[in-house]
Amino acid sequence: MEIKDPTKTYKTNSHLIYSCYYHVIFCPKYRRKCLIDNVEIRLKELFLEISNKYNFEIPDLEVMPDHVHMIISCDPSFGIMTVIHKLKGITSNILRKEFPNLKRMPTLWTRSCFISSVGSVSLEIVKKYIENQKGK
What we know:
The protein has 136 residues and is an alpha+beta fold. It has helices at 37-53, 80-98, 123-131; strands at 2-4, 9-13, 16-18, 21-26, 57-64, 67-73, 114-118. The radius of gyration is 18 Å and the shape is elongated.
């Protein structure tokens, strides 16, 4: 179920209402420029399939030759790291089977990634809201 707000879309599950968006970046091993042509096309297809299977959204995605930028919206009880592990693990397995040139690398993805929360309200506004709850 979704709850509409003029500035946000809130999602719900049985015990939670949430709006969680993350800016995520991750790279191929050795920052190789291997995410091009048919690999790029197939990677985007796989990301969509994985997001549908595990019930999270990728509202924005850009695949560069040597890294991936995306916005991910996911249920916090499932967790952003679980989402990233699914994306990296499944795509690495499938792409290395479908594109033999990727087998030269010991693994497709590095173990690291960048994650930043994204919201429509700044940290300062949230702090002021919390401080004002008791009329301070």
